[in-house]
Structure formats: structure tokens, C-alpha cells
Design a protein that fits this description.
The protein is of the alpha+beta class and about 800 residues long. It has 28 helices and 25 strands. The chain is about 45% helix and about 20% strand. Strands 1, 2, 3, 4, 5, 6, 7 and 8 form an 8-stranded mixed β-sheet that branches. Strands 14, 15, 16, 17, 18, 19 and 20 form a 7-stranded mixed β-sheet that branches. Helix 12 packs antiparallel against helix 13, helix 12 crosses helix 17 and helix 24 packs antiparallel against helix 28. The longest helix is centred in the middle third of the chain and has 50 residues.
Length: about 800
């Protein structure tokens, strides 16, 4: 802020060399900007005045090239060319070409070159050139809003006893006048913080006249009370001879608050004693206002996003709960004696509920994608089997159109791959559905082939080609936008909400792939997309139909009547013993005196919801304290699922669910064959984790492993977000410290590859002291860590079940 000014400084003797040092001046890039901000007459006056000065004035940019030089410079050094012919040259080039005739001491020239990297104001540096002549040099570094630095040089030839008090005062006035023209306000104060001088630009900045400011305490007039301690600390540093730069608000005469960037430096008397300080102020109010506006906009966007999440969670529950009952009752009715007419009605009911379910899923998936919360659920799966199943599904549904649906799989395509089976299914299914919707007759062809292979990955190209209506060229750019539907030839839109292709594009981007569209109106469309997959070296055993132990009891906690009937009907059909209660309070009472082997727990209930009920079961001594609890949640939001696991639930099943999905989930916890298999086989960590190291580290201590994985996910993982801001600040020392601190935890969860990578970054910054390429490496590290975070979340869930099963 109001810093204490420039008066003749303390001389530092080095032979016949004398120099004075202060701090750099912070402004925006000079010359062109400065000129454009002044009226034309004021510009002309400024530069004309510079030409008339009795000394040479030179300004160089961050590339050390001259951007302004006055004619006086050429006259003083007897350079026989016009000043503007020197624009674009460097000072070294000018010295070598025009000034080599002077007998200049090489050591002194080397000292002169050190001014630039030090970024300090230097006044009255004397450079002897003859026995009775010296060059007097002043230097000011100018720091714009960015990071590059410009420099102002002043050169004057004089006798060795060149500075009379009168001449010095005049030179000083001219010097500060030029600085003021550069839109900088200068304020000088004494050691008591009383204003000694307020230059014109500073007065205009705060709305006071010079007479109203001089002699007054700067803090009382201009400083906000909250910044008193801060400015007192700055004043102390001036007495220590230190300079600094900072940003503070100032109170103007009319009550307005402005924000200024201040470069402050101490002022010395002839004896070298600090007698005050000078502050050079740059008005940063507009930029600060922009930053504040952006912060408000960001907060509003985050609030809106939070409201959207809450709305989607509520909508998910309110729609999925009755939809679950509709789908469930339809399944149960199919198992009763129905005539042909009733069967037709059931098919319509089932088809309509499926459309509604798919629409709801699309909306929630789009939201999760945009929020970055859609889980990938990576695993090994049979890619050939997936494509054949999809082909068969659409073949069976194709009973109303004269359309052939063909499947062409490359014989060389791998059977087992590692990726997101659920998302691949969604992508291919939606593209097939899109092709079927727009094709009345002809052919739809689904192709898949391997187009690239490395030691670790393969790239598969999928193609869905149809002979449908095609798309106009001018409509291609909108087909991947949300809620965009192209009308048919009669002007009516096809069935759908316009989310399918938008979701496809999002999912392919998420999986690291690309998609291309080829189409011709009236002839059909080809969607071609490529996706990378990780190779695996083994094939999983054939899937077995779950065998459930019919002597084990299930407690169903569900408040919705239709859902109670649906689940109860299925459990009766499977001959599974169960008991149903309608709320959490009744569940708490019954578990105290009845044994159960599994609890199916609804989330949204009156009195005690599913979260609170689970916490009570897990926190109190009872005979069912450690049995598996599966959440039956109508919300598909990832946050709801994570919350279920946090309170102690073992697993979750999203409504609406099919009978097959419920049976598979129950069989995970009640099937003796599954339990036996789990005990006989060695626990396998996720393939992308270092299983050998993890088995050495934890052995059979599954509870310890679960606690470590959970701690890393919940408490340690967020700390890695601190690395990116340090890169943006180019704070390499702090980045190295953080990398060192955050390195060991990675190995504790099997991320030994990332641990070594982060260690290499630390070594590069500490031992090599070289930040080159670090931003790119940190970006890659964060991308990989985000991908592995999904795997770690799955591993926490698996370990939670493993612990509960012991």
C-alpha cells in the first residue's frame, strides 16, 4: 500500500561504482497499453518531453528487445542513426555496435548485466568511461499483471562530480513524472506513517488533494481497520531494509473501496538510515471485481448443481418406487394363468414401464456424467457374449418391421477383455435402438473388430450401420446434443426424449474413445466408434445359476405396500423363509430376539430411515449385529450409494430390480456354494492393484486391509488435489514436499506404479532441480489417480463384504 518513498538512497561503493537498490514496480505491459489509455495530446506531450530530457531513456520488453528509445540517448552517445532505427535491437547489440569506442571496464559491465535477473530498482549506478567522465545509469524493472518483466533504463554522461542538489531534484521530478504517466500512483510516508508526499496520480486514485493528504497518518485516512496489523508488519520490514509486493483495499474520500497492487521499498538518507518508504500503487479494482463476480457465479453454479442433485435424488426415489412395483407385479402376473388378451395387456404394461425406466436411467446417467460421479464398474467380461446377447435381444424384438439384424464379429477378436461391461452395453444398445427406430425396412448390421493391439491393451472398433432415413448434413452437428430430436418427413418427431445419442457421446468420451458418423439422406447411417480395453490372460469359469440355502431367514424392511407384495411374492416363489416389517423402529425391536441371515433394507422410511436403522443395528449389541444388510434404494445417485456403505450397509440394489437381479444379490450372501468357493480360493485383489505387495502387507488381516483402504479413500485421497494448485503457482519446493508426503500411502492400497511415478516427480524437483515437464506429469498423475479412485471404491466395498463374511 502506501509505502514510503524514493529519495536519494544509500550508496553502495564498489571501487568507483555506486548503486542504489529498491523493488520492482508492478504495472500492466507498457508503452502500447500506456499510450492507448492516454488522450492523443497527452501521449504526444509525454514522448516529446522524453526526447527533450537531458538524458537517454530506453525501455526494453521481456525479450530484452528495445521497444522505446528517445533521441537524447542517440545524441548523448553520438550515435549517427535515428532513434527509431534502434527499436527491436537488444542493449548488448547497441553497446557492441555503437559504444565499443568507450573504454568501459568489463567487471563493471558484468555488474550492470546483473540488474535484470535481480528485479530491483537501481539508482545512480556510475560506469566510468574516461578519466573524467562517467555514465550515470538508473534502472527500474516493471512487473505487468502477467509474469514477464519490462525494464526502464536511464543513461547520462556527466563529470565524476555530476550531481548537484539542484540537478538531482530536477532529474528526480522528471523521473517520477514519467512513472506517473504509466498509470501508477506514488505515495511517500515517513517512519511514523505520516504522508510526506502524494503524487498526482495517487491523489486522483483516492479522490484527495495533495494538501488534504500531506502530514496526515496514511492508515487513518486510507486503510480499512481489518488490514491494520498487516500494514504494521509491512512497515517493520521497511526498517529492515526489505521490499515487498501485496494487494490491499483502500478507502477513498467518497467512501468507495478500491483494490491496489502495491510495490513498497524503504527510503534512506545520505547516512544510510531508513527515513520512510515509498509505495507505487496500481489500481486493480476492475480485475478484482471480475474475480469476485466469477466467484459468485461459481458459487451460484455449485448451488444450482447441488439443487439438481437433490432434485434428481428425490425424483429417482418418487418414480422408481412405484415403477419397481409395476415391473415386479408384471413379472408375477406372467407366472399366473393369463389368456391371450391379458398377455397382450401385460406386454404393453411391461414395454411402457421399460421405456419409463430407460428414460429415468438416461436422465440420471447424463447428470452423473456431467457431475463426474458415474461409476465405471470396470471388470473382466465376455465382449463376444455381450454382442451376441444384444443381437439376439433385438432379433427377438424385431417382429413388426421388415428389417434384417445381422452380427459380424471378427474371428480374431478377443473373448475376454477388461472394461466397463455396463457402459458398453448401454452404448451399443442405444445405437442399435436408434438404428431400429429410423429403419422401416432393409438391414441393420452390428460389426466388431480389433484394430490395434499392444502388450497391455487392445482397441476394438464397433460399427452400427442401417439402411434407414439418414440425416441431413446440416443436422449432424446437433444429433449429440441433449433433448434434440430430428423430425420425420411428416414433421412429427420420432418417439424419444433426445437423450440417447447425447448419452452415447458422453459415455464414449468417458471411456477414452471416439465416435464418427457417416450418413446420407434416404440411404442410411453408419456410427463407428473405437474403445480401448485392457487385455487379460485368463477366462473366467462359466456363470452358474445361484443356489440358495432355503433354511436361512431374511428380514425385509420396507414401508411401501406394493414393494412389500412384490418382494414377498418372489421370496414365496423361491421358498425362502422371510419376515416383513414396515419401518426401522419395528426392525430394531425384532432383531433383538429373532435370528436372521440377511436384511433387505429400504432407505426412505418414516420414523427411522434405512441409514439410521442400519447405524442402530451396527452400533448396539444384538444377535444380528454383523449380518449382511443390502440397501433397496430407489435412488441411483452415487452419493446415496456411498452413504449406504458409510453407515455400515454391505451392498445395495437399485430399484426397480428384476427377479433375477434380486435372486443374484441374495445368493451372494446366502448361497453355501458361493461361501465355500470364497473360502477355498485365495482372495484376489483388483487386477490393476499390486496383489503381491498387498498380500505381503496384509496377509489374512482383512479388517486391517479394509480399514486402510477406507481411510485412504475418505481421508488421504482428497489431499492429492493440493498438487495441481502448486503447479499453477510454480511453487516447486512445496510441490516436492507434498509429493514426498503423499508418496507412501499409494503403496498401502496397491498403487505401487503411481507411487513410483510420484517419486520420480519428487526426485526431479529435489535432486535434479528441474521443473521441466512437471505440469504434464502432474496432470497425467491426477488423471490416473481419478481412474484408480473408482477401482479403490469398488475394492472398499468388496473388502467390507469380505470382513462381514468372516
Amino acid at each position: 500500500m502506501m509505502e514510503e518513498v524514493n529519495q536519494p538512497g544509500k550508496s553502495m561503493e564498489t571501487g568507483s561504482l555506486k548503486a542504489e537498490k529498491s523493488s520492482p514496480v508492478a504495472i500492466r505491459p507498457l508503452v502500447e497499453d500506456t499510450a492507448s489509455q492516454q488522450p492523443m495530446t497527452e501521449q504526444s506531450a509525454l514522448w516529446t518531453r522524453s526526447d527533450q530530457l537531458p538524458y537517454g531513456l530506453l525501455i526494453e520488453n521481456e525479450e530484452r528487445k528495445v521497444v522505446y528509445i528517445n533521441q537524447s540517448y542517440c545524441d548523448i552517445f553520438e550515435i549517427k542513426v535515428a532513434a527509431n532505427e534502434l527499436i527491436g535491437k537488444t542493449i548488448d547489440e547497441i553497446f557492441e555496435t555503437y559504444l565499443s569506442r568507450f573504454n568501459v571496464d568489463k567487471t563493471a559491465v558484468d555488474q550492470l548485466r546483473e540488474f535484470v535477473p535481480r528485479h530491483q530498482i537501481v539508482e545512480h549506478f556510475t560506469l566510468p568511461i574516461t578519466e573524467d567522465k562517467v555514465i550515470v545509469i538508473d534502472f527500474i524493472p516493471l512487473v505487468p499483471e502477467g509474469s514477464a518483466t519490462w525494464h526502464v533504463w536511464k543513461f547520462q554522461i556527466s563529470n565524476k562530480n555530476y550531481l548537484s542538489p539542484q540537478n538531482f531534484k530536477q532529474i528526480q521530478e522528471n523521473y517520477w513524472s514519467i512513472i506517473e504517466k504509466m498509470d501508477l500512483g506514488i505515495l511517500e510516508v515517513d517512519t511514523e506513517e505520516r504522508i510526506v508526499r502524494a503524487h498526482d496520480r495517487f491523489c486522483r486514485m483516492v479522490g484527495y488533494t495533495s494538501e488534504e493528504l500531506v502530514g496526515k497518518p496514511a492508515s487513518e485516512l486510507l486503510l480499512l481497520e481489518a488490514y491494520t496489523d498487516f500494514i504494521n508488519e509491512q512497515s517493520k520490514t521497511r526498517f529492515e531494509g526489505k521490499t515487498s509486493s501485496y494487494e490491499i483495499p483502500l478507502r477513498c474520500k467518497d467512501g468507495r473501496i478500491i483494490w491496489v497492487i502495491v510495490n513498497g521499498a524503504p527510503v534512506y538518507d545520505a547516512a544510510g538510515k531508513v527515513i520512510g518508504s515509498v509505495g507505487i500503487h496500481y489500481d486493480n479494482t476492475e480485475r478484482r471485481k471480475l474475480i469476485d463476480d466469477l466467484a459468485l457465479a461459481k458459487k451460484a453454479a455449485e448451488d444450482a448443481q447441488l439443487a439438481e442433485k437433490q432434485f434428481l435424488a428425490n425424483m429417482s426415489h418418487e418414480i422408481r418406487t412405484p415403477l419397481n412395483a409395476i415391473i415386479g407385479m408384471t413379472h408375477l402376473l406372467y407366472d399366473t394363468q393369463v389368456n391371450a388378451e391379458q398377455k397382450e395387456y401385460l406386454e404393453i404394461l411391461q414395454s411402457s414401464s421399460r421405456i419409463l425406466q430407460n428414460l429415468l436411467t438416461d436422465i440420471l446417467d447424463i447428470s452423473a456424467l456431467e457431475n463426474g460421479t458415474l461409476p465405471l464398474q470396470l471388470k473382466e467380461f465376455d465382449i463376444r457374449g455381450l454382442l451376441m446377447a444384444l443381437h439376439r435381444i433385438y432379433e427377438l424384438q424385431n417382429n413388426k418391421k421388415d428389417v434384417e439384424i445381422a452380427l459380424d464379429i471378427d474371428p480374431n477378436l478377443a473373448t475376454q477383455v477388461y472394461g466397463s461391461e455396463r457402459l458398453i452395453y448401454q452404448i451399443v444398445s442405444k445405437l442399435l435402438n436408434n438404428a431400429y427406430k429410423f429403419t422401416e425396412r432393409g438391414k441393420i448390421n452390428l460389426k466388431a473388430k480389433q484394430v490395434q493391439s499392444t502388450n497391455e491393451t487392445i482397441t476394438i472398433q464397433f460399427e452400427i450401420r442401417d439402411t434407414g432415413v439418414g440425416i441431413d448434413d446440416d443436422k449432424l452437428e446437433v444429433i449429440f446434443e441433449k433433448f434434440k430430436q430430428l423430425p420425420n418427413e411428416t414433421g412429427y418427431k420420432y418417439q424419444g426424449a433426445g437423450l440417447g445419442l447425447a448419452l452415447v457421446k458422453h459415455l464414449i468420451d468417458l471411456l477414452g474413445g471416439s465416435i464418427t458418423v457417416y450418413t446420407k439422406k434416404g440411404e442410411g447411417t453408419r456410427f463407428i466408434f473405437q474403445l480401448p480395453f485392457k487385455k487379460i490372460n485368463f477366462v473366467k469359469s462359466e456363470h452358474q445359476i445361484p443356489i440358495v440355502n432355503t433354511t436361512q431367514r431374511i428380514l425385509v424392511v420396507e414401508d411401501n405396500l406394493m414393494n412389500r407384495k412384490y418382494v414377498g411374492g418372489l421370496l414365496d416363489k423361491w421358498n425362502l423363509p422371510y419376515k416383513i416389517v414396515t419401518d426401522g423402529q419395528e426392525a430394531i425391536r425384532i432383531i433383538e430376539h429373532e435370528n436372521f441371515d440377511l436384511i433387505l433394507m429400504d432407505i426412505q422410511m418414516p420414523f427411522l430411515d434405512g441409514y439410521e436403522t442400519t447405524l442402530m443395528i451396527r452400533s448396539t449389541q444384538n444377535i444380528n449385529q454383523n449380518i449382511p444388510i443390502v440397501a433397496l434404494t430407489a435412488s441411483a445417485m452415487q452419493e446415496q450409494k456411498e452413504q449406504a456403505l458409510k453407515v455400515g450397509m454391505t451392498d445395495f440394489l437399485a430399484k426397480p430390480f428384476t427377479p433375477k437381479q434380486l435372486l443374484e444379490k441374495i445368493s451372494m450372501y446366502l448361497s453355501p456354494s458361493d461361501t465355500q468357493e470364497m473360502e477355498e480360493q485365495k482372495w484376489q485383489y483388483h487386477p490393476e492393484l499390486d496383489s503381491v505387495y498387498l498380500h505381503e502387507l496384509y496377509g489374512e488381516e482383512w479388517t486391517y486391509a479394509y480399514e486402510m483402504f477406507q481411510t485412504f479413500r475418505d481421508e488421504v485421497l482428497p489431499e492429492y488435489a493440493h498438487l495441481t494448485p502448486l503447479v499453477l503457482q510454480q511453487n516447486w519446493e512445496s510441490l516436492a514436499r507434498e509429493a514426498h508426503k503423499l508418496n507412501p500411502p499409494l503403496a498401502m492400497v496397491g498403487l505401487t506404479g503411481l507411487q513410483k511415478y510420484l517419486k520420480s516427480i519428487e526426485v526431479q524437483l529435489t535432486h535434479d532441480n528441474n521443473p521441466e515437464g512437471i505440469p504434464e506429469k502432474i496432470n497425467f498423475f491426477q488423471t490416473e489417480l481419478s481412474r484408480m479412485a473408482v477401482i479403490l471404491a469398488e475394492e472398499v466395498n468388496r473388502l467390507a463384504f469380505k470382513t462381514a463374511a468372516q
